[in-house]
Specification:
This protein is 35% helix and 20% strand. By secondary structure, it is α+β, with helices and mostly antiparallel strands. Strands 1, 2, 3 and 8 form a 4-stranded antiparallel β-sheet that branches.
């Protein structure tokens, strides 16, 4: 199995997915019964379930342990006061960490050597291609806000595409994490 988890809003959900995706996948009945298509689909959904049930604490710790570095100019522009936040003892609270705005694309390739099949699953716009006879054969589908199927799905879920982005913010229509976009009452993760 090969996987690429490409973070946006920070790399922490990508790191979380790297640590937990394969382990969760291997524990699924679908995977154990060689239903790799369903196993990979559920594996993506389970990352969000994990994030919502304690995984964000691990994401927050990762972000605190490895804070993003700012260029000297950005430090001057954003740290004018130079004071730490008194109410948090100098540490960012979870709201300040924007944990619900961190996500990642996912592209997983699994090779089953016994059946000589390749399984590819993706969420987002990280692309997978296979070289054959000097040509690039697409193995994944980009989930972008300009795709008619994705526009219909997003609008049916009660969101809108504004300026080429979901709710005017996200430049892709599927991802792991990005939990603030997945809180519509009455809707399942699917």
């Amino acid at each position: 199995m090969f996987a690429v988890f490409d973070g946006h809003g920070g790399g922490e959900v990508a790191k979380y997915s790297k640590r937990h995706f394969e382990e969760g996948l291997r524990q699924m009945e679908e995977f154990k019964q060689s239903d790799y298509k369903e196993g990979l689909r559920r594996g993506f959904l389970d990352i969000d379930v994990q994030l919502n049930s304690g995984g964000l604490e691990e994401v927050a710790k990762t972000k605190r342990d490895n804070p993003p570095t700012k260029s000297p100019l950005m430090k001057i522009l954003t740290d004018v006061s130079g004071k730490k936040k008194a109410d948090t003892g100098g540490e960012d609270g979870e709201d300040d960490l924007n944990l619900d705005s961190i996500g990642c694309t996912a592209n997983v390739v699994m090779i089953d050597y016994s059946s000589r099949k390749v399984w590819v699953a993706n969420a987002g716009d990280s692309r997978c291609v296979m070289g054959k006879g000097g040509r690039a054969i697409p193995l994944s589908f980009d989930h972008k806000p300009e795709c008619e199927v994705e526009i219909a799905r997003i609008e049916a879920a009660g969101s809108v595409i504004q300026e080429g982005r979901v709710d005017g913010h996200l430049n892709l229509t599927r991802a792991l994490g990005d939990l603030k976009f997945k809180k519509k009452p009455g809707l399942t993760a699917e």
